[in-house]
Amino acid sequence: MNAVSAIKQYQQVSISSSVMGASPHRLVQMLMEGALERIALARESMARNEIAMKGQNIGHAIQIVGGLQGSLNKEAGGEIAGNLSNLYDYMVNRLLVANSQNDESILDEVSGLMVEIKMGWDAMPDAYKQ
């Protein structure tokens, strides 16, 4: 086993361990962090004209946003959950446009929206975290 393979295997174990012990609140934070990371990687790939890597990272970001959208409890969350669902739809559509048009400013827009959502999630009072 080479060093790169060993590092990747260690990272996978580390991520799995973090997920296993995380609260639902923390899992959502981790998804948001993952989306932001993938968007940043897509931006870097775009700057280096690495088309395949850009598409792969945008694809992962779209999957993560879809996961966030799928985790919404629209019955319990009411209007807020509905609004978030609509915002996640918008973000996915914008990521698709960013990919097809190679538009870094759209990645910045989606990243900014995710940061705002994450800030609200991070500021949630402990009484609401499960």
Q: Can you put this structure into words, describing what you see?
A:
This protein is an all-alpha fold. Helix content is about 85%, strand content about 0%. The termini are far apart. The mean pLDDT is about 85.
Q: Structural class, judged by helices and strands?
A: mainly alpha
As residue ranges, the low-confidence spans are none
Oligomer: single chain
Q: What is the CA-atom radius of gyration, in angstroms? A: 16 Å
Please give the count of helices: 5
Strand count, sense and barrel status of the largest sheet are: none
Task: Set out the fold topology.
Elements: H1 3-20, H2 24-47, H3 51-70, H4 74-101, H5 104-122
Key terms:
130 residues, mainly alpha, 5 helices, 84% helix
Task: Describe, in short, the structure shown.
The protein is mainly α and 130 residues long. Helix content is 84%, strand content 0%.
